[in-house]
Fold each of these.
Amino acid sequence: MGAMRRNALIASMSVGMVAIEPRLREGGTWHGAVQALRRRLCPVAVWDNGTPGARALAGLGATLVASPD
């Protein structure tokens, strides 16, 4: 529980977050990005690699980017 609170604090102080290859509904990348989007902690970008996780985050409001660079 402490790690999730810490991550929310870090996201809220960030200019933005980039999610690279998030697994749909699994892992810290997915959960951190969803939390940032739902709580409007910071803008979220996700690499548009065609995975279900990337598409789902885009559906929640993340910006798709063509390259992780």
Amino acid sequence: RKISDRIECMREELNKKVVRATKWSSLTEIAAKLVSPISTMVLARLLAPDAFGILVTATMVISFAEIFTDAGFQKYLIQHKFDTRDDLYKSTTVAFWSNLIMSLVIWAVIIIFSGQIAELVGSEGHGDVIAVSCFCIPLAAFSSIQMALYKRDLDFKTLFLVRIIGVLIPLVVTIPLAYFTRSYWSLIIGMIALNLSNAIILTVKSKWKPKWFYSFKLLKEMFSFTVWSMIEAISIWLTSYIDIFIVGTMLNEHYLGIYRTSMTTVGQIMGLVTAATTPVLFSSLSKLQDNDAELKRMFFSFQKLVGILVIPLGVGIFLFQDLVTKILLGSQWYEAAHFIGLWGLTSAVTIVLSHYCSELYRAKGKPKLSVLVQVLHILCLVPAILWAVRFDFRFLCDVRALVRLTLIVINLFVLYHVVRISFASMLKNILPALIASAAMAGFALLTNADSYTMSWQIIMCIVCMIVYASILMLFRKERNIIFNLKSKL
């Protein structure tokens, strides 16, 4: 009896921490997603798609380099069980110095070979952009380790301040520079300013401070986990950027800008939900890694909540793709509307049926499974993109959006063999959201909601939201989740 009471007490305490963490993470992302679209709307009207194409190539190089500088240390510090706080801080210090030294070495190599790297990624003549923008790599080394400690403790309240200041950077730095220079340099400088503010604030506010301490023994202990986490990160990077590399080398910067900005625009919208829940889910699942029953319960709870929010969002982006493009990017981006719609629809399905599977693998201490999934997906992705890029740009976008659905098939197979979560159980979990979204889509199609004036389309968007909410409220569990969440938040 005492043991069961203790377990129930621990569950309640974890649930409270998860709710608080989700609240602050959600508030952070809501604030970020209110500002980010405004920044994107202004910048898309000040700068041509070519400028965003150059930024994409710089971001691609930075994100690849940061795989090796972080080397999986952040995930290790969140997932690993330490005996004492002192052990945690010692490992943190080793991770910090390893991270920083590696980042400086990699930045130096990038500066030396910046011209060749720029040519390789399809941005010939912009080696100086690559060299300068990669200053973000050592800056990120200062903040990523401290960020891991906050996430480990589910302390997303502290990260709220950091994120809020970060999202204001485009308003006070990037947009003014873009207005006066009309140059891609405004995007690069804004990106550096963002990383600089993160590094300063997190270093100042963190309870842990770097010390002159290093242990190769601790590095060796971390390496067995981090090496696979790093390989996983490389596979995820390839999944995210291999098509960017192909498009950048085979098409011009104009189409590369449209291609990547379409993905980013949808990502900003979907990130309102995913960015708020993913770090909380990973931290929560890591605490339940030895209890499969509780781990499944937590996983399904997050999936159902995310499905309620994301599925209608993706369907809505698809139905009102022209409206979304006009509002967020402007009329000069009309070529992006079709891809934005498809990417939004497939994103919704991929998020609820595939996205969170990787978090479960890592929480169980099995990053190898995520590597396997990503590699299998890449084997489908690369041939498809190489084939589709030979045709017109619209066809390329169709193929890219559809091929990502292979991630769902692969993840569902692996997930069932890891924790016995079947496709049927996942589908049943999100079925009410699917039914309500289908009803909303049916209403929009029957009324030709996307064929009216812009102001009328906005009204029809609101009506579609009311239709979705009304149908969803017919399901008891979904109704209870929404009302309970509202009362707790």
Amino acid sequence: MTVNKDMTIGQVLEQDSSSAGVFFAMGMHCVCCPASIGETLEEAAQVHGFDVNELINKLNEYFAQK
């Protein structure tokens, strides 16, 4: 799986619920919140004040190791 900024948090978690650890490591502890599940990765990065590319890179690294 390749992650991109237009995917939602929910789509990523559907592929592998353990990927929540990547979100938690980035300071996104709200990934289980129903509203956040529908946010795109780009929207989530903006809300949490970090670069979406950093999140995407970490998620893609995670999935590449699976």
Amino acid sequence: MKMKEVCDKTGLTERAVRFYVAKGLVSPELIVRNDREDVQTLRDISDLRKLSFSIEEILSMQKSPERIAEVLSVRRAALRKEQKDRETILASLSRMDGSGMQSIHQLAEQFRSVSASLPNP
């Protein structure tokens, strides 16, 4: 199957397909074989990425399906933490009036106590 066909069938860009091949999520022979399973795997990977699963998590679940429940549990906990952090940020932003701000330093100073408890992105 040609790369264009793979992209058409999966809705992914050529760059994304090549990235997933490079990461070992799908076989590099994907482009020459006419394998519906590979196309479905790419769709599955795309769906899981949209749900914020990392490449490492997907690879782990592919290699060890018995770890799926564990990965789901860890992902749920991470999303709950992210949600809590975002709610904290949103509450702080809601109280902020930036009309008098003249620099990002002033803005950062206003949020220093909030940002201190958050991880770097």
